[in-house]
TrEMBL record:
The gene is TRM8. It is found in: Nucleus. Pathway: tRNA modification; N(7)-methylguanine-tRNA biosynthesis. It catalyses: guanosine(46) in tRNA + S-adenosyl-L-methionine = N(7)-methylguanosine(46) in tRNA + S-adenosyl-L-homocysteine. The lineage of its organism: Eukaryota, Fungi, Dikarya, Ascomycota, Pezizomycotina. It is an enzyme of class 2 (transferase). The keyword S-adenosyl-L-methionine applies. Residues 115-129 have a biased composition (Basic and acidic residues). This is tRNA (guanine-N(7)-)-methyltransferase. Residues 97-147 are annotated as: Disordered.
């Protein structure tokens, strides 16, 4: 239960260094942000967390995003203990293998999993192979922590994301939030357990940078409409990024500037993020196998108007 979960009193008191040991700040990089003794003594990273996968399940999205954004720190949040432990151990195994490609991670031995929490079989073999690491690390090459495929930039935390999100992330810190295939909680009296709701959308807005993007995907049309109305009803905190920006196009060259004029590179990145969440999440793969439909929403955090 939630009683076993602990949260820092504020984000500045959260020690992320065990999660991202390759990104620990050197002494000279640590800026005294506050006079409070506990904040000053909390070990620091050299950058802020930037991408959150809310309800990450078995972590398919994390493993796909890691080599795409090697300079960004990415966190999966998951409420189930055994699933969180599985993802934790898989990350460690993948890091070890990236360091020494002759080590085959034996993900099947990674701790006890209940029948209903086991990842799909495909997850346990070919999907666990990381992309090749830099074959020729010359002196000008990026540092080992930055090599795409070393998985040092992803981690997972057991948390109930419906509670205390602002205790984990400072305001305006995240550039992306993924909400992939949230549990639908069909019954009306269970709707309060949905991880997208008007109240939670304001919390997501609070921790996001202006211009940041929240992504939603589900195979349940009702839930899609519910999530759309929560984001649309956010009182101007988010604006919808229309499908013509992020839908894959025939003869894709990634250079079509259409849409809302956010720039070609931005649009290409959004399109790639949507492709990844459609294809690389465990649920996304399951829906493809079953021939189901996937409903996507893309929501851009609008800058707050200046105080009058
Ligand atoms: N996002 C993954 C995917 O697309 O494959 C997993 C989707 S799964 C249907 C929903 C996940 O959200 C489950 O792993 C569940 O344990 C987790 N979850 C549900 N409520 C949560 C909450 N309040 N906080 C954190 N995780 C939660």
């Amino acid at each position: 239960s939630d009683h076993a979960l602990t949260y820092p009193a504020s984000p500045s008191q959260m020690d992320w260094t065990p999660h991202y040991p390759s990104f620990v700040a050197t002494k000279s990089e640590v800026k005294p942000e506050s006079d409070a003794a506990d904040e000053a003594t909390t070990p620091r990273l050299d950058r802020q967390l930037e991408i959150a996968d809310i309800g990450c399940g078995f972590g398919g999205l994390l493993f796909a995003l890691a080599p795409k954004y090697p300079d960004s720190l990415i966190l999966g949040l998951e409420i189930r203990t055994s699933v969180t432990e599985y993802v934790e151990q898989k990350i460690l195994a993948m890091r070890a293998q990236a360091k020494n490609p002759s080590v085959q991670p034996n993900i099947t031995k990674l701790g006890p999993l209940d029948e209903d929490t086991k990842p799909p079989k495909s997850e346990l073999n070919e999907d666990t192979k990381p992309p090749p690491t830099n074959p020729d690390p010359s002196p000008t090459a990026v540092s080992p922590s930055q090599v795409p495929g070393s998985y040092t930039n992803i981690s997972v935390l057991r948390a109930n994301t419906m509670k205390f999100l602002p205790n984990l992330f400072p305001p305006t810190s995240l550039s992306k939030i993924f909400l992939c295939f949230p549990d639908p909680h069909f019954k009306t009296r269970k709707h309060k357990a949905r991880i997208v709701s008007p109240g939670l959308v304001s919390e997501y807005a609070y921790v996001m940078k202006p211009g940041g993007v929240a992504y939603t995907i589900t195979d349940v049309e009702d839930l899609h409409l519910w999530m759309c109305s929560a984001f649309r009803g956010s009182g101007g905190l988010f604006e919808e990024v229309p499908g013509d920006v992020w839908e894959e196009r025939e003869g894709e060259d990634g250079l079509d500037g259409g849409g809302k004029g956010m720039g070609e590179a931005w649009e290409a990145e959004v399109r790639e993020d949507v492709r990844i969440m459609r294809e690389e999440t465990e649920e996304g793969k399951k829906v493809t196998r079953n021939g189901g439909q996937k409903f996507v929403g893309v929501w851009r955090r609008v800058a707050d108007p200046p105080w009058p």
